[in-house]
Design goal:
about 110 residues; alpha+beta; Alpha-Beta Plaits; 4-stranded antiparallel sheet; 3 helices; about 30% helix; elongated
Length: about 110
């Protein structure tokens, strides 16, 4: 990937089965080098004018910024939420060996 800008994307899922399916697809399609799942988390959010509180599973996705549009398209295709979370944080530093592995895995 010539334009390598590593990011960590966060995605939430309603349950562990959905999270595992998303994580596996992201890695198999080389849209992510690694996806970690954190279960359970508790999300408090505003949706359609009301405050909701729900258990969810958090996915921490190690990827690159140029792949985000493809990840977003995949989420539109297979994620059960009408508006799935996809938020990215730049990875500004890390071990050279890890960042090399991340780039080679995408």
């Amino acid at each position: 990937m010539a334009d390598f800008r590593p990011v960590m994307a966060t995605i939430t899922a309603p349950d562990a089965e959905t999270a595992q399916r998303l994580a596996r697809r992201l890695v198999e399609d080389r849209l992510a080098a690694c996806v970690q799942t954190v279960d359970p988390i508790r999300s408090i959010y505003r949706w359609q004018g009301r405050v909701h509180e729900e258990p969810e599973v958090l996915l921490l996705v190690k990827t690159a910024e140029p792949l985000i549009p493809r990840i977003e398209a995949l989420l539109r295709e297979i994620h059960p939420y009408e508006v799935p979370e996809l938020a990215c944080l730049p990875i500004t530093c890390g071990s050279a060996a890890y960042l090399k592995w991340l780039q080679e895995s995408l």
